[in-house]
RNA sequence: GCCCGGUUCGUCUAGUGGUUAGGACGCCAGGUUUUCAACCUGGAGGUCACGGGUUCAAGUCCCGUACCGGGUGCCA
C-alpha cells in the first residue's frame, strides 16, 4: 500500500516549491492507488505563524490536491498535527535513551557557541558536537547518572541528542539519485528533543512516518543531507525505513539560489499560490490565484519543473498527470523558474476553457468595474478576445471598450494615424456608416471597403483612425466584428465625440 | 572550512555507447490581418562545464578540476 505525506510547517505562506512537493506526492499516491496525507509539522513554536496552516489547506484545495487524511478531516493515524503528538515523541525519545542511541545534554547556547568557536580557531575540519567533542561537554557522557537525574529533577533545561556512532559508513538509497554514501564522522549528535519540550523535525518526522505507515518519503532536496541521520534513526528504532525520493529544487530565474519569498513581486511573477499578508509585518505578497492564473495552469507549470513525460506533450490536466507520472522521470538537477513559460501555460489552459466558463470567470472582474451586461453580448465579446488573452483580467484591459466608451486615445496611435485630413474623413465615414442598414460584420466590411476604394483612400488611413475612435487604441479584434458588436448607434456616437475631443 | 547533490541552446528539457544532438518557451523573419493576438512557414541559438581516461566508437561509463546549488541551528 502506497502512503505518502506532504508535511509542511506552518511558518508562513506555502510557496510554490512546497506546492510542487505536494503535487508530486499527490500524483504518486493517485497513480499508485495509494493515500495522500497532509501532516502539519508545527514543532517550532518560535516560528509558528497564525493562519499559515489554513493557508496551506486553502492552497491545496484551490489547486485540487485533495488529501485522504489530514488535520482538518482526520483519519485512522491521527492526530495529523505534530503539536498534538508531543507525548508520543517524548515516549520514543525515552526508548532511544534506553537503547543507548540518545543521551541528555545540558549545554547552554553560549557553551555550544564557545565549542564551535574553539574548533574553528583550531582550524579543525569539522566543528561538530560528536564523538570527538561530547566528552568535553555537559551530558550523560561526562556526568554521572545521579548527576543527570538530579539536574533534570531540579528542573534544569536539557535536550536529548542522538548518539552518532563514530566512523560508520552509511549507504542510503534515493529513488532519484541512487546510492549516496556518507561517513558518520561528518555527522553530529543532532538534537532530537528540544529543551522547550518539543521534538525536532528529525525525531518527529521519523516517528510519524513510521506510525502513519508512510511507504515513500518524497521531499525537497534540502533534506538529502539529513537522510543518513534519518536512516540511522530507523535503525535505532529497529523500524523498516520507507523509500526516499529527494526532489530537485526550484531555483530563481537568474539561477542564483532557491526560489524564495522575496523573488516574486520583484521579478514580476508570484511565488505563492494565494495572496498572503504577514500577520506580524503586514507585508503583502501576491498569489497565483489573485494574479489570474488558473489552478490547472499552476499545476501544469509545477509538474513540468523537474519532471517530464518523455514525450512531446506539455499541456496536462491533473488527471493526465496522474496517469503519466512516475518518479523515475524526475530530474536530478534544479530547475530555474521561467516566468515567460508560466504565462504561456496559463494561456494554453485558458484557451481550453469554454466561452461559458470564461464568462463565469470574467463576471467578477466586470462587476468590480461596475458593469452590467447581458449574457449573449458577453459571450460574443469573449469569443472575439479569447485568442489574444493570457489572463482573465485581460478581457477587461483589452476589451473594456465593449462595455464603455474609451476615455482617452492611445498617444502613439494618434501620432501615427491621426493626420491633418483625418477628422474630415472620419465625419464622412460617419455619414456612410449611418446609411448602413444591415449592420452586420460582413456587410459593414463590404460597404466600408467599397466606400474607401471609391474615395481612393487606403484602408489603413481610414480603418486605423476609426478603430482608435471606437476603442481608444489601434490593436484589437477583427474591426468589423467589433463594430457590429458595439452597434451602429454607439459607433456613430464615439466617432462624433472622438473627432471633437481629438481636434485639440 | 567541511559534507552532500548537480552541470545538454538564454530558460524548461529529450537523449541510458553508434542520431546532421530532438522538442517547447522566449527571440527574429516571412505568410495571414485595416491592426494586434492567434495560426502557418522558416531562422538564429548547443565546441553536451573543462581536462584526462575506458572503448573501434562517449552528451551517454570512470577519475580529477571548475562552477552552481543545498546542508552544516535547541529551523523545518
Structure report:
The chain folds into five domains: 3-70 and 204-251, Rossmann fold, CATH 3.40.50; 87-193, Glutamyl-tRNA Synthetase, Domain 3 (Glutamyl-tRNA Synthetase, domain 3, Alpha-Beta Complex); 261-350, Glutamyl-trna Synthetase, Domain 2 (Glutamyl-tRNA Synthetase, domain 2, Orthogonal Bundle), CATH 1.10.1160; 353-393, Helicase, Ruva Protein, domain 3 (Orthogonal Bundle); 411-501, Orthogonal Bundle (Arc Repressor Mutant, subunit A), CATH 1.10.10. It has 504 residues and is mainly alpha-helical. It has helices at 16-31, 52-63, 86-98, 109-121, 145-153, 201-211, 227-237, 263-267, 288-291, 295-303, 318-324, 339-351, 355-368, 375-385, 394-397, 411-417, 422-434, 441-454, 459-471, 479-486, 488-502; strands at 3-6, 35-38, 102-105, 159-162, 169-174, 178-183, 191-193, 216-220, 243-247, 250-251, 276-277, 284-285, 335-336. The radius of gyration is 32 Å and the shape is elongated. Strands 3-4-7 form a three-stranded antiparallel sheet. Strands 1-2 form a two-stranded parallel sheet.
Amino acid at each position: 500500500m502506497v502512503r505518502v505525506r506532504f508535511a509542511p510547517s506552518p511558518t508562513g505562506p506555502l510557496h510554490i516549491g512546497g506546492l510542487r512537493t505536494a503535487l508530486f506526492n499527490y500524483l504518486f499516491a493517485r497513480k499508485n492507488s495509494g493515500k495522500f496525507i497532509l501532516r502539519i509539522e508545527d514543532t517550532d513554536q518560535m516560528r509558528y505563524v497564525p493562519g499559515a496552516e489554513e493557508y496551506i489547506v486553502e492552497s491545496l484545495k484551490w489547486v485540487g490536491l485533495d488529501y485522504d487524511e489530514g488535520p482538518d478531516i482526520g483519519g485512522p493515524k491521527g492526530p495529523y498535527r505534530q503539536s498534538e503528538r508531543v507525548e508520543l515523541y517524548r515516549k520514543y525519545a525515552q526508548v532511544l535513551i534506553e537503547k543507548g542511541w540518545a543521551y541528555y545534554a545540558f549545554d547552554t547556547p553560549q557553551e555550544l557557541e564557545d565549542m564551535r568557536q574553539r574548533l574553528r580557531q583550531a582550524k579543525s575540519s569539522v566543528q561538530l558536537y560528536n564523538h570527538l567533542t561530547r566528552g568535553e561537554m555537559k551530558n550523560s557522557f561526562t556526568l554521572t547518572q545521579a548527576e543527570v537525574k538530579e539536574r533534570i529533577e531540579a528542573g534544569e533545561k536539557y535536550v536529548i541528542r542522538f548518539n552518532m556512532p563514530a566512523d560508520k559508513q552509511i549507504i542510503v538509497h534515493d529513488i532519484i539519485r541512487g546510492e549516496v554514501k556518507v561517513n558518520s564522522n561528518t555527522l553530529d549528535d543532532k538534537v532530537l528533543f528540544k529543551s522547550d519540550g518539543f521534538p525536532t523535525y528529525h525525531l518527529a518526522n521519523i516517528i510519524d512516518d513510521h506510525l502513519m505507515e508512510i511507504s515513500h518519503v518524497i521531499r525537497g532536496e534540502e533534506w538529502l543531507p539529513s537522510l543518513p541521520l534519518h536512516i540511522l534513526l530507523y535503525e535505532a528504532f529497529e523500524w523498516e525505513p520507507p523509500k526516499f525520493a529527494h526532489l530537485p529544487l526550484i531555483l530563481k530565474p537568474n539561477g542564483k539560489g532557491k526560489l524564495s519569498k522575496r523573488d516574486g513581486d520583484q521579478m514580476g511573477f508570484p511565488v505563492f499560490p494565494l495572496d498572503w499578508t504577514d500577520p506580524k509585518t503586514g507585508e503583502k505578497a501576491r498569489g497565483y490565484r489573485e494574479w489570474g492564473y488558473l489552478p490547472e495552469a499552476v499545476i501544469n507549470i509545477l509538474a513540468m519543473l523537474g519532471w517530464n513525460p518523455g514525450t512531446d506533450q506539455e499541456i496536462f490536466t491533473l488527471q493526465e498527470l496522474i496517469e503519466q507520472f512516475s518518479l523515475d522521470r524526475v530530474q536530478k538537477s534544479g530547475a530555474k523558474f521561467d516566468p515567460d513559460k508560466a504565462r504561456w501555460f496559463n494561456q494554453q489552459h485558458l484557451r481550453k476553457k469554454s466561452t461559458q466558463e470564461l464568462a463565469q470567470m470574467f463576471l467578477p472582474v466586470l462587476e468590480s468595474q461596475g458593469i452590467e451586461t447581458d449574457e449573449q453580448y458577453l459571450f460574443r465579446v469573449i469569443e472575439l478576445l479569447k485568442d489574444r488573452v493570457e489572463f482573465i483580467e485581460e478581457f477587461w484591459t483589452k476589451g473594456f471598450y465593449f462595455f464603455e466608451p474609451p476615455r482617452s486615445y492611445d498617444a502613439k496611435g494618434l501620432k501615427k494615424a491621426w493626420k491633418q485630413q483625418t477628422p474630415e474623413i472620419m465625419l464622412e465615414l460617419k455619414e456612410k456608416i449611418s446609411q448602413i442598414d444591415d449592420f452586420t460584420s460582413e456587410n459593414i466590411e463590404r460597404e466600408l471597403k467599397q466606400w474607401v476604394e471609391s474615395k481612393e483612400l487606403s484602408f489603413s488611413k481610414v480603418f486605423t483612425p476609426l478603430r482608435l475612435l471606437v476603442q481608444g487604441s489601434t490593436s484589437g479584434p477583427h474591426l468589423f466584428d467589433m463594430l457590429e458588436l458595439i452597434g451602429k448607434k454607439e459607433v456613430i456616437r464615439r466617432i462624433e465625440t472622438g473627432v471633437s475631443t481629438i481636434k485639440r
